[in-house]
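queue> pop job 88
queue> type: inverse folding (structure -> sequence)
queue> payload:
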């Protein structure tokens, strides 16, 4: 359990308010998808979501519309997409008051749990500058670090 885990209903209520203040609408289906993500400890693919949706809500959604709804959640920082695995997870900071920073993900290759951590602004800035010097154009600042979590590799 991390400090940022909250009750799902409370998180959904915050997400709904967040969307309203930006003039967006968390429709029932979008909300259901967010609930599925919040209830799943590991990141999952759009196809996993189609299956969960069918089991939980008795509705068969086309993968394309699931992708569109996931994109909505990602755009509104309610969910994140892991580019290295093409999977989705709920943001850990939906119910937080602080500003959302550039997310960094620690991905355990053993149990597939993902921790969302925040890097200091200065560090992100430094990373961006050193990349810029090479002439490389950064499409995303999101970092996805693969390894083994403390549960799978207890401290010696
Ligand atoms: Zn986040
Ligand atoms: Zn937070
Ligand atoms: Zn692990």
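queue> result:
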């Amino acid at each position: 359990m991390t400090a940022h885990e909250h009750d799902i209903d409370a998180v959904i209520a915050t997400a709904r308010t967040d969307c309203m203040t930006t003039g967006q609408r968390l429709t029932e289906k979008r909300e259901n998808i967010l609930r599925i993500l919040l209830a799943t400890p590991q990141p999952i693919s759009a196809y996993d979501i189609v299956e969960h949706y069918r089991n939980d809500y008795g509705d068969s959604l086309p993968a394309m519309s699931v992708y569109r709804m996931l994109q909505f959640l990602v755009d509104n920082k309610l969910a994140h997409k892991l580019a290295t695995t093409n999977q989705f997870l709920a943001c850990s900071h939906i119910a937080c008051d602080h500003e959302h920073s550039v997310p960094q993900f620690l991905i355990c290759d053993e149990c597939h749990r993902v921790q969302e951590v925040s890097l200091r602004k200065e560090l992100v800035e430094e990373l961006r500058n050193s990349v810029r010097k090479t002439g490389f154009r950064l499409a995303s600042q999101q970092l996805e670090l693969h390894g083994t979590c403390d549960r799978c590799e207890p401290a010696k």
